[in-house]
Amino acid sequence: VLDDPDLKDVDPVVLKQCHAAAATCILEAAKHNADKPAISACLEDCKLDRERIEEFCTEYQVHTTIVFFSIGRSPLHITDVSWRLEYQIKTNQLHKTYQPSYLVSLNVENSDSESHPDVSFSCTMEQLQVL
Questions:
Q1: Can you tell me the distance from the alpha carbon of 87 to that of 11, in angstroms, rounded to the nearest whole number?
Q2: Which of 2, 21, 24, 55 has a Cα-to-Cα distance from 42 of 20 to 30 A?
Q3: H or E stretch including 25?
Q4: Model's pTM, two decimal places?
Q5: Sign of torsion, CA 13 19 23 29?
Q6: pLDDT for 78-119, tens place per residue?
Q7: Distance in angstroms (rounded) separating the CA atoms of residues 42 and 54
């Protein structure tokens, strides 16, 4: 995506955040088996124009089954967990936060493949308690 000439003027950090937001939206819609009206309502709340919403919904419906069948057939099995406490002073937009967060790394196995990818994420104390 970073090599796309149409996106050369876009800040890579912003582009990465947009990609993460779109991926999250797609995964949450699929997780809840959302239909077109539900997705449209959500995207309208985000102030997207009607053209983009229609394009997103069309592409979502076309590619949803293809993408989710290619993810894998068996869930990941957690074999080990490591974590550390991090104290964040500022965000990447230079907003002061002063909040602790936990960096969690899960060692996982997948019976469908030989590789053992690690899953890493950051969360707050409240999110860790829910997890």
A1: 26
A2: 2
A3: helix 12-31
A4: 0.47
A5: positive
A6: 888 999 998 877 767 766 767 788 898 888 877 666 666 778
A7: 12
Tokens for 72? 């894998």
Residues 2 and 18: beta-carbon distance below 8 Å? no
CA distances from 35 to 44, 64, 65, 73 (A): 14, 11, 13, 23
Regarding whether 56 and 22 lie in a shared domain, the answer is: yes
Domain-embedded: residue 34: yes
**Distance, C-alpha 15 to centroid of its chain:** 13
DSSP annotation string for 41-65: HHHHHTT--HHHHHHHHHHHHHHHH
Amino acid symbol at 128: L
| Residue 8 backbone phi and psi in degrees, to 5 | -65, -25
Q: Which two tokens stand for residue 116?
A: 């053992």
Same domain flag for 113 and 83: yes
Residue 61, both tokens? 């419906």
* C-alpha distances out from residue 42 to 16, 58, 61, 63, 79, Å: 21, 15, 16, 19, 37
DSSP 5: G
Residues 31 and 64 in one domain: yes
